[in-house]
Amino acid sequence: MSGNRVKATGVARWSIRHPWWAMGLWLAFVVAASVGGGMFQVQQAEPKEIAVGESREAIELLEQADFEEPPAEIVLITADSAWDDEDAAQAAKEVTERLDDLDEVKEVLPAIGSTETDALLLPITLSGDSDVADEKLDALRAEVDAVAKDYPQLRLETAGEFSLTADIMDMVNEDLGVAGMVSIPLTLGILLLAFGAFMAAGVPLLLALTAVGSATGLWAVASQVIPDNGSAQHLILLIGLAVGVDYSLFYLKREREERQNGASHVDAVAIASATSGRAVLVSGFAVLVSMAGLYLAGDAIFNALATASVLVVAVAVLGSITVLPAVLTKLGRAVDRPRVPLLWRLSNSGGSPKVWPRLLRPALRFPKTTLLLTLVAMAALAWPAMDLELKNSSLDDFPDDTVVAKTYDRVVDAFPEQGNSHQIVVRADADDAGAVRDALTELAADVRDDDLFSAENVVPPSTSDDDTVTKMNLAIPYSDSDPEAKESLDLLRDKLVPDALADVSGAKAVVGGAVAQSYDYVDHQWDKMPLVIGFVMLLTMVMMAVAFRSVVVAVVAALLNTLSALAAFGLLVLVFQKTWATELLDFKSSGAIISWIPLFLFVILFGLSMDYHVFVVSRIREAVAGGMGTKQAIEYGLSRTAGVVSSAAIVMVFVFAVFALLRMVEMKEMGIGLAAAILIDATVVRILLLPSIMALLGRANWWPSKLSRKRPVGDFDTAPAPLAAVERTPAASGFRH
């Protein structure tokens, strides 16, 4: 690890010698990133960029033929109680007159009555193109709201694609505010418990918040090239708070420990930079490597998630090895002020740890039994993951009490054809345009009585200006999570469409639409999962092997992290694919997990788990290098890192768990999955699995390095050897204090 030591120590050395410069440069970076990012609007990914497979082909065929439909909206008129046809018709007339006078509206079509219930629908064509349609929405809604005031017995609402998207974004921003208001004071409270002093608690939180702010600004710039999938800003807050606090926590705990051992505050900072600082660098790099694996998935969702994660983790690591040593140098012993008396005594009791050696005793004295029983328990928790089902996020996933869900349900109940549909797109010679339209019209007639389709109000096929591309939508009365939706899609792709176009020579037909996009993306996930997982495991193993000069440490780390992830998957299936927790967590179970969640969780957990593994194993390795026997070094290293690992894990668990309060189901799944995996990793893995495995392996843990052949000074019952020579690395020399 000498290469990492030199790099980390060199940066920290400069920061310690020039603290004001280091803090000034960091402040300038944060301001530049935040202000610069504020000059850009975060770009959202378009359907074409997110779609994969055959559904993407459908979008591309329409674009190639300049088959772009003008942006459309709808106004839905319903009633909570008694319905009056005359009032509804008059309201529709007034809305039409008002909207006809708007420059933002190109055309208002005649009102359509529902055959299912009492409702009217006004189709609206907006002026301009789809890129600016959302900017016209406010003017449209203002006119609709003005009419609604005159008809209190009716409900008038915009309910098209742009309206629902705007409502979702409002909900996302509101949820982000809630997450911030809850997670920040919660994190501060946990840090106060860990340090017992306000200044020490505030430093990690401040670093994390500056990392989040900087990364948010940088993401706004990056989204101009890699568009947002709608979850990136949530992710920056989630990951930024967690890793920013964790990295500072590791650093501060080691610095405080060195001061308690008699080092001056400058030497303590230097020693912390050469030990915990190097661990932060290695673990941060592990997270970056893991997240980079998502680029191999080759789709817009993971490109956005990977880029957002890489940005916030990179900024957090940069702050930990630059401005953090400078801040601690200037604060000196004032970092432990002002103190909270009771919490200070609890967090600084001094002496050797007493609780953690007792917890480690089963794993160290009976490693085989402990390992076997723990593996059985972990396998039982992971077993439900065998039933993992995936689906794309949709409007059906929002809780029933949200504005988006209520509006969407009213539209679909009254006009089923406005819900899910399959889009058939056919490219053929211009001379065959008539034959293609006839074939599709006949297909629609054939499925009219089929329960898999809603073919009563089928819009006739339409053809591009050059007569080469024809399209037709077939509505279905099912959500995309219903098996009938997949059955109807397969029926169209495998039989109905090929049979209908059998007599049209050279015709290329694809079936797209929202349902097709969902299932195509799920298939894409399953196809890419082995590649991404293999890349992440292999590259992080190589990195760990180089960092610790041990192949065994790398393999054990990979296996333990994989086990934690599988246990988290099992818990996700139990919670979100079943219905027992729906009221507790306020979500609708679709019987599946959002398609991008499992792979993303695996990758990010693989990286985050390295935080603890690198930190703990580094301390054990220091003890072994100082002459301790294997079991003694395990007890020493784990006991002295257990407090900081527990504090860091508690921060992560609570920050992640806050996201279970949000309304988007993917945020709930991500929060619960990450919280569960980190909790398992910091307790079961670190207290039972890791020590039992390392105890059984003995000196083989460090193979093929020299430590695997070095004879220990003592065994388990021998008193710990002094580690001053190990811990006071060259980083501590050369400073005047």
Automatic annotation (TrEMBL):
Residues 56-368, 399-712 form the Membrane transport protein MMPL domain. It is found in: Cell membrane. InterPro entries: MMPL_dom, Mycobact_MmpL. Keywords: Cell membrane, Membrane, Transmembrane, Transmembrane helix. The chain crosses the membrane at residues 20-40, 232-252, 279-298, 304-328, 369-386, 529-548, 555-576, 596-617, 638-662, 674-697. Pfam families: MMPL (PF03176). It is a multi-pass membrane protein. PANTHER family: MEMBRANE PROTEIN MJ1562-RELATED, MEMBRANE PROTEIN YDFJ. The keyword Transmembrane applies. GO terms for cellular component: plasma membrane. This is MMPL domain protein. It comes from the Bacteria. The keyword Transport does not apply.
